[in-house]
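Amino Acid Chain and Its Fold in Token Form
===========================================
What this section holds: a protein sequence and its matching fold, both as plain text.
Structure line: whole-number tokens from a learned vocabulary of local backbone shapes, matched to residues.
Purpose: to set a sequence beside its fold so the mapping can be learned.
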Amino acid sequence: MKRNDEKIKNFQSYMKRKGIDACAVTDLDGVNFFADFSFAGQGDAYLLITRKKAYCFTKQMYAADLKKKAPYLALVDSLDCADIVKKARSLKAENCVFDAASTGYLAGKLFYESGFKEAAGLISEVKEEKTASEISRIKKACAISAKAYDIFRKKLKAGISEIEAASLLEGIMSDLGGQGLAFTTIMAFGANSANPHHINSSRKLKEGEVVLLDYGCKYGGYCSDITRTFWFGKNPSAEFSKTFDLVKAAHDEALKYVKAGAAAKEAHNRVCEFFDKNGKLAKYFIHGLGHSLGTAIHETPYLNPRSLSTLKTGNIVTVEPGLYFEGKFGIRYENTVLITDKSVKILTK
């Protein structure tokens, strides 16, 4: 059995339990996930998965590679979603569904009018518990990212711009075996670190200021995610040191609640309580505690106060508490972690 085939077979078992005869998959991430193949862009391929077979509707240009890498996919030379409907009808599939949360308007309208039922979040739910192969590739991506940080710290010099520093870090990950970026690198110097989603600029690094980097690479199609914050230069300020220690302690506190069977929002809420017990600082924690990742950098379950998910063995999530003081600095400390039966394992050490 190929590693790709495992995902489809798992999904077919899920379909059988749910009484689903066929499922249309049209979003790029969902297609790449099941095919375990990197199609270049949205609309390059669609899937129809039945209980016994998986059909890939794609361009002829992909055929040769797909036959080698995904021989279990039956190829159809078409990118017309109407042909997906026709194929489902020819197979006499009765209960047909599509993931309404990840399907474009026109395709969704076509499926709906053709009798397909909406199943919002269906694909994201299936992706939550990672297979052994997925875990292995995420571990490798995380190891590359973690090692890149040590090398980057040694090469970082005053006078380099945020854009140049991001490029330096990305080149190091590539040299270590990274296969592309998991997302756009965030490189923030000084007061820019107070913006969690800062856009890199030409601002140059100075001695005696904060550096925040949020970055990740891909390996085998799977993402890593890590954030580190440090003081560039000698003698960090007392305020920075105290805040860093607090954020790191919040991260370690959160790990106590990131476990199988726990509500996904619990760890976030506990971090807020922790920050408020240590200076009424929860108001400066302005984003969710974390999210899952896989072929996409943001997947369910999310570790935020709105989440209705329950954490499970096999989930891989980020844990990333932070405090942000506008005009001064921000500190975020993030690791990607694997939830096992008995513990949580940090993958980005």
About this structure: The first strand starts at residue 22 and ends at 25. The chain has ten helices and 18 strands. The chain has two domains: 3-127, 132-346.
